[in-house]
Amino acid sequence: MKSRISVLTIGVDDLEKSLVFYRDGLGLPTQGIIGQEFEHGA
Predict the structure, then answer these.
(1) Does residue 41 contact residue 35 with C-beta atoms inside 8 Å?
(2) CA 16/CA 34 separation, integer angstroms
(3) DSSP 8-state secondary structure symbol assigned to residue 15
(4) How far is it, in rounded angstroms, from Cα 4 to Cα 33?
(5) Structure confidence at residue 41 (pLDDT)
(6) 20 by DSSP, 3-state: which?
(7) pTM over 0.70
(8) By Cβ atoms counted within 10 A, which residue in 2, 15, 19, 29 is the most buried?
(9) Which pLDDT belongs to residue 33?
């Protein structure tokens, strides 16, 4: 069986800044911030 990573969760202090870093800086694809509309996240 070939191993792979399909989901990775990282805890950060500034979610917006982290999104910009991973999306624009590293070029990783993203659907944006998920669960932001909920009071305590998804």
Answers:
(1) yes
(2) 12
(3) H
(4) 23
(5) 56
(6) helix
(7) no
(8) 19
(9) 78
- Helix, coil or strand: residue 4: coil
Say how many residues make up the chain: 42
Q: How far is CA 28 from CA 2, 16, 23, 31, 39, in A?
A: 22, 15, 5, 10, 26
Backbone angles phi, psi at 26, to 5 degrees: -95, -15
Task: Give the pLDDT confidence of 1-42 residue by residue, as tens digits.
Answer: 899 988 878 788 888 898 899 899 999 888 877 777 777 655
Strands (E), the chain: none
Query: What are 15's two structure tokens?
Result: 């979610």
The rounded distance, in Å, linking the Cα atoms of 28 and 7 is: 13
Of the candidates 23, 5, 7, which has an alpha carbon nearest to the alpha carbon of residue 15?
23
